[in-house]
Amino acid sequence: MNIATEMLIVVGGVLALVAWRRRDGSLRRGFMEAWQTARQTSVLLVIAFIIVGYVNVLLSQQWIQTWIGPTSGWRGLLVGEMIGMVLPGGPYVVFPLIAAFYRAGAGVGPAVTIITSWAMLGLLSVSFELPFMGWRFTLVRWTLGLGFPLVCGALAAALFG
């Protein structure tokens, strides 16, 4: 168990205690909401773990270290930015995948670049942004955001690499 898991257990326990003390059915309703959320996300989690498993098997450690390893320099940051842009899905898919890259030898700079690029420049988000914000806004935000993941990755590599 790690600190994040322990913190979640404590927070969940405190919330369950508060719900129980209210004696208005909150404990049962909260559990039912949790069960429904778990059922909805379980398929997504299983698929994400399957993807991570295949990435671990199909992408060689040599490939990862060459293209996004600690010594890959700016090439690694640029490849990391491109990977982040095309990663599909939410955090259930992306974080286990990036963790697999990192365990296989990706450098801290490219890993930070991938995460930042996914969060800021994910191509899937453009399909949601365009209808609401329009082409001009999307283009401005996306263009201005192109350099930020590279800066974050370079700083991470310099400070922690």
Question: Can you give a write-up of this model?
Answer:
The chain has two domains: 1-58; 60-161, no CATH class. 86% of the residues lie in helices and 0% in strands. The protein contains eight helices and no strands. The protein has helices at 3-22, 26-58, 61-68, 73-86, 91-103, 108-121, 123-145, 147-160. The protein is globular and about 60 Å long.
Put simply, the count of helices is: 8
Straight-line N-to-C gap: 26 Å
Order of helices and strands: HHHHHHHH
Structural class of the secondary elements? mainly alpha
Radius of gyration: 20 Å
- Cα shape: globular
What is the helix fraction of residues, given as a range? Answer: over 70%
Low-confidence stretches: none
Strand content: under 5%
Number of strands: 0
Pick out its properties.
161 residues, mainly alpha, 2 domains, 86% helix
Could you give a short description of this structure?
With 161 residues, the protein is mainly α.
Secondary-structure map:
Blueprint: H1 3-22, H2 26-58, H3 61-68, H4 73-86, H5 91-103, H6 108-121, H7 123-145, H8 147-160
